[in-house]
Structure formats: structure tokens, C-alpha cells
């Protein structure tokens, strides 16, 4: 029994004497690595919806001709523009392709007075033009650098407005005519810059040039014509991307 116990103790001591040498042969361990913080990659792909607000102004010429009539009046309108937009972007590399629709109400209006000749009679014309709403459906092409994007845009435009004309004819009195009309023959081009503040929120500034074709109408031999109507819009935007 004593011999067995002595043998067991000797074996244990011999094994312990080998531990420092074996440990010296093991590779040294560095500090535990800490995973880098996850940084999401900015992507412009996705649906978005938002609002916009800014300023718009435009001009148009009103002309009279035929049956002894002549003269023209320069009309203009300006005011607040505000509404909403909805769209979708698709990003491949640095290029961003998208489509967007928007509609906004506006307070843009102007009242002007001018002298013309109608059927050979000197006439004073007062016209109030008001743009009630304006909308577009556009394609977008952008170039993104991380969270910033510059883009061009263009497409179809439509609008609705109200016009009131008051004619004061020498020796005959005053006549007033008012009409509301919608226009669907417009087009628009423009561009802007957007900033992705977070994965979901996008802020931007945009400029749009909108043009509607001229119109004309004839009554009692007198033709009233309007030139192309040009509208400029500068607005800020804020969108939520899903």
C-alpha cells in the first residue's frame, strides 16, 4: 500500500513538473477581439411619401384681335405653394432611378388692368388670375454619394384655376365674366438635391419649371388668345422612406 501511494505521488509530481514546459510551447493569446459597431449602408431604394412647401410665380399674355379689336395685357401670378408627394426610388451603384407624383394647392394670384380696343371701342379690362392647384407626374434620375443625391426630373403637369374679367366699355357700362378651368396639357422639368438624414427621413430642395400651352376663343368676331403660361416653383421637401 505504501509503495502504491508513493508511486501515485511521484507520478503526480512528475506530471506537474511538465506543465510549465508544455505551457511555454502554447501560442500566446492576445486580447479578445471586439466586433466593430454595425454601420448600415445608405440606400435610396424604396417607397416614400412626404410634404412640400415653397413659392411659385408665373406669367402669361392676354391678347385681343379681330372685328376691330386690338391690344394685349401682361398677366402674372405669385404666391405660396404647398402639398404632398409620393414616389419610389431604385438604386443601382451610384445611380438612382425613380418616379414621383405630387399635387399642391397655391395662393398664387394677380389682378391687373389694361386698356384695349374691342370692336373699335376703347375698353378697360381688369383681370384676376388665380392658380388653385398644380400637380405633376415625373420621372427622376439621380446620382448618389452616400447620404446625398442630386437629381434631374421631368414629366407631365396639370393645373386648375379661376379667371375673372371685368370689361368697362365707354358709353355702354361694365360687364363681368368669370370662369374656372383645368389644364392637362402641361409639361415640367427641374432638379434638386436631397439628404438622407436617417434611414427613413429624407430632406431636400427642388426647383420646377412648368409650362402650359396657349389657348384662344372667338365670340362675335373677337378672338381672345392667351400665350403659353410659364410657372416657376422653388420648394423644400421632407419625405419618409419605407
Structure in words:
There is one protein chain. This protein is mainly β. Helices cover 10% and strands 70% of the residues. The protein has one helix at 2-25; strands at residues 46-65, 72-92, 95-106, 109-118, 121-145, 148-169, 173-196, 201-212, 215-219, 222-226, 229-241. Strands 1-2-3-5-6-7-8-11 form an eight-stranded antiparallel beta barrel. A hairpin with a 2-residue loop joins strand 9 and strand 10 (222-226). The termini are far apart. The relative contact order is 0.19.
Strand content: over 45%
Our count of helices gives: 1
Strand order of the largest sheet: 1-2-3-5-6-7-8-11
How many strand segments? 11
Assign the structural class, choosing from mainly alpha, mainly beta, alpha/beta, alpha+beta, or little secondary structure. Answer: mainly beta
Low-confidence stretches: 1-24
- The gross shape turns out to be elongated
Give the biggest beta sheet: 8 strands, antiparallel, barrel
The radius of gyration over CA amounts to 37 Å
Cα distance spanning the termini: 81 Å
Mean pLDDT: 82
Give the % helix.
under 10%
Order of helices and strands: HEEEEEEEEEEE
Short recap of the structure:
The protein contains 1 helix and 11 strands; from the N terminus they run αβββββββββββ.
Amino acid at each position: 500500500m505504501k509503495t502504491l501511494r508513493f508511486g501515485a505521488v511521484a507520478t503526480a509530481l512528475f506530471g506537474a513538473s511538465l506543465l510549465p514546459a508544455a505551457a511555454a510551447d502554447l501560442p500566446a493569446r492576445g486580447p479578445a477581439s471586439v466586433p466593430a459597431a454595425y454601420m448600415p449602408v445608405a440606400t435610396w431604394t424604396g417607397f416614400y411619401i412626404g410634404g412640400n412647401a415653397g413659392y411659385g410665380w408665373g406669367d402669361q399674355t392676354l391678347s385681343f384681335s379681330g372685328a376691330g379689336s386690338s391690344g394685349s395685357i401682361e398677366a402674372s401670378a405669385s404666391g405660396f405653394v404647398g402639398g404632398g408627394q409620393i414616389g419610389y426610388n431604385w438604386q443601382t451603384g451610384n445611380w438612382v432611378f425613380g418616379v414621383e407624383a405630387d399635387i399642391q394647392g397655391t395662393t398664387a394670384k394677380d389682378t391687373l388692368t389694361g386698356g384695349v380696343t374691342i370692336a373699335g371701342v376703347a375698353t378697360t379690362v381688369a383681370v384676376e388670375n388665380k392658380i388653385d392647384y398644380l400637380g405633376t407626374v415625373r420621372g427622376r434620375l439621380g446620382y448618389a454619394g452616400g447620404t446625398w443625391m442630386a437629381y434631374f426630373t421631368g414629366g407631365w403637369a396639370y393645373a386648375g384655376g379661376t379667371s375673372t374679367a371685368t370689361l368697362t366699355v365707354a358709353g355702354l357700362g361694365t360687364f363681368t365674366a368669370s370662369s374656372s378651368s383645368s389644364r392637362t396639357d402641361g409639361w415640367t422639368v427641374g432638379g434638386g438635391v436631397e439628404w438622407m438624414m436617417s434611414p427613413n427621413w429624407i430632406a431636400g430642395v427642388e426647383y420646377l419649371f412648368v409650362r402650359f400651352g396657349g389657348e384662344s376663343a372667338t365670340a362675335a368676331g373677337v378672338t381672345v388668345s392667351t400665350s403659353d403660361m410659364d410657372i416657376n416653383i422653388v420648394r423644400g421637401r421632407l419625405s419618409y422612406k419605407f
